[in-house]
Amino acid sequence: MKNWLRYSLLIVLGFLIILTISLQITYSYMKNNINTSLNEANIKNDNCVKVTYKENSKIISLTNSYPMKDELGLSMEPYEFSLNNTCDVKLGLSIYLLTLSDNELEDKVIKYGIKDLSTGEIIKIEKLENSKDGKNDFSIDQDMNQLNLDLNGKMVQNIYNIYNINLKELINKNYALYLWISDEIDSSNVINKNVNVFLYIKVKNEENKNECSNQKIAECIPHNANIIDNLYYHDGIKDNYLEDNSELEALDNSYRYSNINPHNYICFNSDDKPCPNSNLYRIIGFFPNESGEYETKIIKADYATTTELGLDASNDSINEYYWNNEKIEKSYYNIWKDSNLNIEKLNGYYLNNYLEEKWRNMIVDHPFQISGIPINKVEEANAFEIYNYEIGNNKITVDNMSDYSLEDVTYNSKIGLMYISDYMYAASPKYWIYNELNIDNNWLYNNNWEYTITRFVEENHYNEVAAIALDGDISSILVSSLAKVRPVFYLNNNVKLVNGDGTISNPYIITE
């Protein structure tokens, strides 16, 4: 998993806010108040950075239905704060939540959400115990002395690094922090229980290093994965930000973006500033090729339109397409290499007519594994098992399917579609083990029927493929149905990052 940096030089902002979750729940009525105790240290300066807390956020009152679902937790009054960098240098900040040894509930029942108030985006929803271990960031005596002073002798149980920020020079950022008790715990177990959670912010004497300007994007971003939220290294080694499901990683040494809204936006096929919405793509992850070099795999952020793919076979410009509407000789017409969508649309019109030559040259020919998966496995398998059937050790080969050709199993092309496993691994890691996906924690979910590249292998399903359904589940769909499409492809290893931070308002800008 990620090897977290141990920062050696850290300047403590000297700010501590106590968030006390006092749960007093009866059988007929449940009420929760989060009391925020503030003193004159409401505003603290560390030369350059000023942290300000809204006065009306001293108390966050959460009433009724406690414990609660994420949607309700995010509707409660948040704790708002602003970070203002008054200097002309970029600085790194780390936000921590600390739990105490005398808490009466386990950390695993606490959930939090962080909202960027400047964009309105919920940038993170997570269980507290799944966040990065921050204890090593407090190893310096100066840190611990300040921490002990602010805690008035209370003992810290755990320290969680919930978010890292690089604050640009002379800029102000506003955030909202939501805290609630997970609905996974029964309400009878939280009656008259108290939990103390401390919010702590550290300012470093330098920015969090993720400066990849003029460097290869497929090398630099994975190298800095330890300071990039929601980018997971799939090597199967357990780390603190996962529960007990590190064994469900793909084990392919890939780096994949997961969770609700990672900063993985990238501008493609346009040099316009700002990047047009139709040219916004998102990075699925970084994957090693046969030479061991990483390639960047990206997908269109929104569905392809007739501008990019041309009209569908019915000449009805509704921005939906057939996977395949022609029956081929061997009677299977869910073979990707023979599909209309592949030949005519993605590797035809989109590649040769829509993409400009400069951008087309950034895309590499890549082997797409297209042998398929048994339909019953979709209903009962976790993310790792799906990955193995599509791409890994359990994939179908020409050796065990006599009527398959090599191109029926592995198809080299520039443009494809996402795998089912791409979609499953885009969810929050806790949902890799669930059969029913949680669409609120999956950035690849786009709220419509959408084709994947994966076929079903049984003879009685020769005309069906896997799709993302309207409700976010993985379902079967006839290849002659109309559905949404998002092109997927791999950038060559020489593509460099010019600037950007991966947010929708400031996507990565690339060049060769």
The general outline is globular
- Tell me the strand order in the biggest sheet: 5-2-1-13-7-11-10
Q: What is the helix content?
A: 10-25%
How far the N terminus sits from the C terminus, by CA atoms, comes to 30 Å
Alpha carbon gyration radius? 24 Å
Number of domains: 2
List the helices and strands and how they pair.
Blueprint lengths: L9 E16 L4 E8 L6 E3 L2 E5 L5 E5 L6 H4 L5 E7 L5 E10 L9 E7 L4 E7 L4 E2 L7 H11 L4 E12 L3 E11 L12 E11 L10 E2 H7 L7 E3 L21 E3 L7 E3 L12 E9 L5 E7 L5 H4 L11 E2 L17 H15 L2 H4 L5 E4 L5 H6 L2 H8 L15 H4 E4 L6 H6 L24 E6 L8 E5 L5 E5 L3 E2 L4 E4 L4 E4 L9 E3 L1
Defining key terms:
512 residues, alpha+beta, seven-stranded antiparallel sheet, six-stranded antiparallel sheet, 10 helices, 13% helix, disordered N terminus
Q: What's the quick description here?
A:
Helix content is 13%, strand content 33%. With 512 residues, the chain is of the alpha+beta class. It is globular.
Describe the structure.
The protein is an alpha+beta fold and 512 residues long. It has 2 domains: 10-204; 215-511, no CATH class. Helix content is 13%, strand content 33%. The chain contains 10 helices and 29 strands. It has helices at residues 70-73, 141-151, 217-223, 306-309, 340-354, 357-360, 375-380, 383-390, 406-409, 420-425; strands at 10-25, 30-37, 44-46, 49-53, 59-63, 79-85, 91-100, 110-116, 121-127, 132-133, 156-167, 171-181, 194-204, 215-216, 231-233, 255-257, 265-267, 280-288, 294-300, 321-322, 366-369, 410-413, 450-455, 464-468, 474-478, 482-483, 488-491, 496-499, 509-511. The strands form 7 sheets. The chain has a 7-stranded antiparallel sheet with strand order 5-2-1-13-7-11-10. A hairpin with a 2-residue loop joins strand 3 and strand 4 (49-53). The chain is globular, with a radius of gyration of 24 Å. Mean pLDDT is 79; it is low at 1-45, 57-65 and 239-243.
